[in-house]
Every structure is written in structure tokens, then in C-alpha cells.
Specification:
Layout (H helix, E strand, L loop, with lengths): L2 E2 L7 E5 L5 E8 L4 H15 L17 E13 L6 E12 L4 E13 L5 H28 L1
Parallel strand pairs: 1-4, 2-4
Antiparallel strand pairs: 2-3, 4-5, 5-6
Helix pairs in contact: 1-2
């Protein structure tokens, strides 16, 4: 399961008006925490890459040769520019399960202009950013697994 950095571990939709000042919309929330919503999408993206025989969530009793640990670093709509931009940052660490040795790590960061300067536009941009970040993550993991 992905972890979330402080400030991003709730269902609140976060935005910025000024650098380093996280705020949240009063009447708009995600349906679950972003990390929880990301988990099944992450599994599907890795499975669809075709590079792995199976991809399971961490709470499975099965074990495999590789383990992917992820942390949602940032998911915020930035209103300091117009149009506003949604920024998504995800850190990934690929480990060898038997030894817990780090094989590789990478931070994926994407910024997408919102379709409108409101939470709905931010959510639409989040969808695009998530697809792009997960595609890059799947390619990264597939490349590392081939090595």
C-alpha cells in the first residue's frame, strides 16, 4: 500500500495559494485518501505492463522476488499561476524481497494544468497526472526487473 507524506494522508483536497502553505477545500474531498485510491491503480498499471507474472497488494500472504514501496509526496492544486496546476509527486523504491536490498528508486513528478480553477478542474488534472505517473512508474519497474 502506498504511504502518504504528512498533509496528504487524508481525503481532503489540498491546494496552495502561496508556496509551502497547504490549505484544503471546505466542501470538496476525495472519496478516500489519495494513497488508498492509488493502490489498485498502481497494481493494475504494473500488471498491465506485462513485465510481471503477478502483482499483489502488500497485505497478500503470497511473496515474490520484488517489493515496491511507494510514498505519495505531493498531490496539490497550485493557484499561484493561472490556470492553476495539479502537481503529483510519487516516490518509488524497488527492493529485493529476500535481502531487503534496494535495487533502484526514483521520484516521479508531474504537473498538469487544470481544466478550470476549481476542485473539479483539479480532479480532472489529477486523473491525467496519475495516468502519466503510473505509466512512467510501470516502465521504470519493468526496466529494473529485466536487469
Amino acid at each position: 500500500m502506498p504511504r502518504a507524506a504528512p498533509g496528504y494522508d487524508s481525503a481532503r483536497m489540498v491546494y496552495l495559494l502561496r508556496p509551502q502553505e497547504l490549505e484544503s477545500f471546505a466542501f470538496h474531498e476525495w472519496v478516500d485518501t489519495p494513497a488508498q485510491m492509488l493502490a489498485p491503480l498502481l497494481v493494475r498499471s504494473l500488471q498491465d505492463s506485462g513485465a510481471f507474472r503477478a502483482v499483489l497488494l502488500a497485505h497478500s500472504a503470497a511473496s515474490g522476488a520484488l517489493r515496491l514501496e511507494t510514498e505519495l509526496i505531493r498531490l496539490q492544486q497550485d493557484f499561484s499561476t493561472r490556470p492553476s496546476r495539479l502537481r503529483l509527486t510519487l516516490r518509488a523504491v524497488l527492493l529485493e524481497t529476500a535481502t531487503r536490498r534496494v535495487i533502484a528508486w526514483r521520484e516521479f513528478d508531474d504537473s498538469v494544468p487544470a481544466t478550470s480553477d476549481d476542485p473539479v478542474g483539479g480532479a480532472a488534472a489529477a486523473h491525467v497526472a496519475t495516468q502519466r505517473v503510473l505509466a512512467a512508474l510501470a516502465a521504470f519497474c519493468a526496466e529494473q526487473a529485466r536487469r
